[in-house]
Amino acid sequence: MLNKYFVANLAIVASALVSSCAVNAIAADKKSNDITCQEFVDLNPQTMSPVAFWVYNDDQKLKGGDYVSLQETETVAVPLTLQLCKDKPQAKIKDFTDKVKGEIKKEVSKAF
Predict the structure, then answer these.
(1) Which residue among 59, 74, 86, 93 sits deepest, i.e. has the most Cβ atoms within 10 Å of its Cβ?
(2) Taking the domain 4-111, which CATH number applies?
(3) What is the pTM of this model?
């Protein structure tokens, strides 16, 4: 007889593996972060945060450890990206990097 906690943990691990595989498949298939808005919208919602995190942090000009945290990605970047993608489904989400990072800075400055 399987323990219910074992089954729950197994489900969590399986979900994490599926999400990881989806992100890796996109990363392997896409060069230079050229995922389109439509591809982003079509993702499993669990994989949107890791993909957005990957796209918005793949910047060679980051200064002094400047990056978009996973929490900022989940709470600001993903919803904003989805909103922007509704208007331009054929756009690349990397094209929204400056706008998304600007909104994140506004949110962070409100918190402090």
Answers:
(1) 93
(2) 1.10.890.10
(3) 0.62
